[in-house]
Amino acid sequence: MKKMILVSLFAIIIVLSASACSNSTKSQPTEKAAAVEKTDLILATTTSTQDSGLLDVLLPKFESEAPYNVKTIAVGTGQALEMGTRGEADVLLVHAPEAEQQIIDSRDAINRQRVMYNDFIIVGPEEDPAQIRGLPVEGAILKIASSDIPFISRGDDSGTHKKELQLWNMAGIEPASVTSYIETGQGMGSTLQIASEKNGYALTDRATFLAQRDNLNGLSIVSEGDNTLLNIYHVMQVNENKHEKINSNGAKAFVEFMTAAETQSIIAEFGQDLYGEALFFSYTE
Questions:
Q1: Which CATH superfamily is domain 119-229 in?
Q2: How would you classify the pairing of strands 91-94 and 39-46?
Q3: What ranges do the domains of the chain cover?
Q4: Would the CATH topology of 39-118+231-282 be identical to that of 119-229?
Q5: CATH C-level class of 39-118+231-282
Q6: What is the pLDDT along the chain (285 residues), one digit of tens a residue?
Q7: Which of 68, 177, 180, 192 could form a disulfide with 41 if both were Cys (CB 3.0 to 4.6 A apart)?
């Protein structure tokens, strides 16, 4: 009798164990289904958004809130816009309004929204050998051109380079005719470093200069505040109706994230703790 009871108990234990294993196995697909699968989102943007450190703050927040892994390609604005026209990026964050309008007009990009702004400045040696400090930007360009002090240009079709060429044109000067004009073909951070090494002048966005200032021995702001130096950033989606394999949902989500009130507050505060002033201004202020 005791033997029969032990056998019965043993059988019950086996059944219960099998049932538990079965339930555990069945629950696994449910847990996997609950996990959100992330897809890649290609962001083509200007080097200033990366060199300033702003993307290091914004992208982790976006990725924590949305099912996308952002793959950032930081190049000059001209190159970023070309990526858009070729359908090689999903979303663009750039700062050359006239060039941007062309890609909107061609319908290669849609949903263009203002995100933020700061300004361009001319930086140069603290001693200011061309004596341009305090001059309007056009007068500053003229004096640099007539001196033998190097002017260091990005020369890369970036938004900053486009603005610089506009300033030379305003002054009535062809930069290639200036013997001390040097093109780096590099990003803003590298161009500023070369200007520092050569004791030359350069046009830069304020954000990158402030973020890099500690590594730029002897460079200081020598011309600023001119109305022509406003630097406006827009975000836009690459048009899925014109280009295949665009992550349109991700691009739309990124545009909405960049223009959201919380993100705009982060942009407005970015840099104040480290530099004593914001590097960008939001459009909701």
A1: Periplasmic binding protein-like II (3.40.190.10)
A2: parallel
A3: 39-118+231-282, 119-229
A4: yes
A5: alpha beta
A6: 444 443 444 444 444 444 444 444 444 444 443 467 899 999 999 999 998 999 999 999 999 999 999 999 999 999 999 999 999 999 999 999 999 999 999 999 999 999 999 999 999 999 999 999 989 999 999 999 999 999 999 999 999 999 999 999 999 999 999 999 999 999 999 999 999 999 999 999 999 999 999 999 889 999 999 889 999 999 999 999 999 999 999 999 999 999 999 999 999 999 999 888 899 999 765
A7: 68
